[in-house]
Automatic annotation (TrEMBL):
This is Aste57867_23887 protein. Keywords: Membrane, Transmembrane, Transmembrane helix. The chain crosses the membrane at residues 38-63, 75-95, 107-129, 141-163, 175-198, 204-222. It comes from the Eukaryota.
């Protein structure tokens, strides 16, 4: 019973926590032996396309901005950088969690703190950009992006509270999965669905459909990750 409690709490607190854990908890996994699910891979690949190719491509002038008549200004630029950072951290931190070994625990916690900061910056500057700096009258898009951002920040705060105040790994894990599958990926789905919609991309229902699709895929991804299933 005591060993089970130690194993349950090995994901908690700080890089220095639980120095005297069991041999099983100290065992270091191979890098490729992570929390793999189809939905993590599916969402991760599209997320990398979105933040690295589309996002940083726009930032460095390799691709045209989403609205060609609006150049990339400082607020939007900072949003792109911090959005890319939190997304990349989420992809890694979902794959490797503290129970995978001492090194993974340290990296997971340090990156998690970076993600907390970059997530708040990304949401704040993204909201200013979509409602002011780059607002073009597209209200459904602005609302959809904001919904994703609110979910992201709310889940960040809830996940932090659960792990720091209550040491509840399960609730922390569920909240941080929501950050990735909803907060990071809903903005991507809004761009991706428009990209593949062809002649229907300007229809008023396209953004609600994109958000709904993101919510469904996110729920599938969260359930698979929580249950340790491939699908």
């Amino acid at each position: 019973m005591q060993d089970d409690a130690i194993t349950h709490h090995v994901e908690i607190a700080s890089p220095q926590a639980h120095q005297g854990t069991t041999a099983a908890a100290k065992a270091q996994r191979n890098f490729v032996d992570g929390n793999f699910t189809f939905w993590w891979l599916f969402g991760g690949v599209l997320a990398l396309w979105f933040v690295l190719y589309k996002g940083l491509g726009v930032l460095f002038g390799l691709l045209p901005p989403p609205t060609p008549t609006q150049p990339v200004r400082p607020i939007f630029a900072l949003h792109l950088v911090t959005a890319a950072l939190i997304t990349l951290i989420c992809v890694y931190n979902i794959f490797h969690t503290p129970s995978h070994g001492r090194t993974y625990r340290t990296v997971h916690i340090v990156l998690g703190r970076m993600a907390m900061i970059s997530g708040f910056i990304s949401f704040s500057f993204g909201a200013v950009a979509v409602w002011w700096e780059r607002y073009n009258g597209d209200l459904p898009f602005a609302i959809g992006i904001t919904v994703g951002g609110v979910l992201q920040v709310g889940a960040q705060l809830y996940g932090w509270y659960q792990i720091r105040k209550h040491k509840d790994v399960t609730k922390h894990k569920r909240a941080m999965l929501l950050v990735f599958f909803y907060g990071c990926l809903i903005p991507m789905w809004m761009r991706f669905v428009v990209l593949v919609a062809g002649p229907y991309k300007n229809e008023p229902w396209i953004y609600p459909v994109a958000v709904a699709f993101g919510l469904i895929v996110g729920q599938l991804g969260m359930r698979a990750s929580m249950a340790g299933r491939l699908l």
